[in-house]
Design a protein that fits this description.
Helix content is about 20%, strand content about 35%. It is α+β, with helices and mostly antiparallel strands. The protein has a single domain (about 40-170), classed as Chitinase A, domain 3 (Roll), CATH 3.10.50.40. The protein is globular and about 35 Å long. The chain starts with a helix and ends in a 5-residue tail after the last strand.
Length: about 180
């Protein structure tokens, strides 16, 4: 009887350990609900979040405009890193250096945005790659990695700043042949 009980407990322990491993792997690919609080200033750009509500992003009138992509990790996140070929779900807020005004924010729409990283501006493709679910980054994007010399509107002309919070890595984008 004791041998049967020990066998049962061994099988149960292995099953629980197996479920735990699978759960951790799945979590790296699914939405992270953990809060991410930060208060960071970089050369006149300030990113603030209490971890519970939409973050605020301000660009001072005299903020130093980036000449290359500048990435500041605000929260690390956990799990698998996003790659340039992935489709991701993010929350974000964007501010233009030229106007110091917010021009877009997923928070205003009440839901995160999902898109393939290969179909956004180069500053996002490069800046979101390497993030982990639950992480947040401040991206300071120079004009040539934003919309370049052909912005879709005056609102996004020149360098841009974003707070990006990675909610999930949904899947790899279909590869082009």
């Amino acid at each position: 009887m004791r041998a049967i009980l020990i066998s049962f407990l061994s099988v149960f322990a292995i099953a629980v350990a197996g479920c735990s491993t699978n759960t951790n792997t799945a979590e790296s690919q699914t939405t992270s609900d953990e809060s991410c609080a930060f208060d960071q200033s970089v050369q006149g750009v300030t990113a603030v979040s209490n971890g519970e509500s939409a973050p605020t992003l301000t660009v001072a009138k005299d903020a130093v405009k980036p000449k290359e992509l500048e990435i500041t990790d605000l929260c690390a996140g956990e799990g698998t890193e996003a790659t340039v070929s992935d489709t991701v779900t993010v929350d974000y807020v964007g501010v233009a250096y030229n106007t110091q005004q917010e021009f877009d924010a997923s928070y205003d729409r009440g839901e995160p945005a999902t898109f393939p990283l290969q179909q956004v501006i180069p500053g996002w493709t490069q800046g979101v790659a390497g993030m982990k679910p639950g992480g947040a980054r401040l991206l300071r994007i120079p004009t040539d990695l934003a919309y370049g010399s052909s912005p879709p509107s005056k609102d996004v002309e020149g360098p841009l700043a974003f707070i990006v919070q990675l909610r999930s890595i949904d899947s790899a984008s279909p590869s082009s042949s």
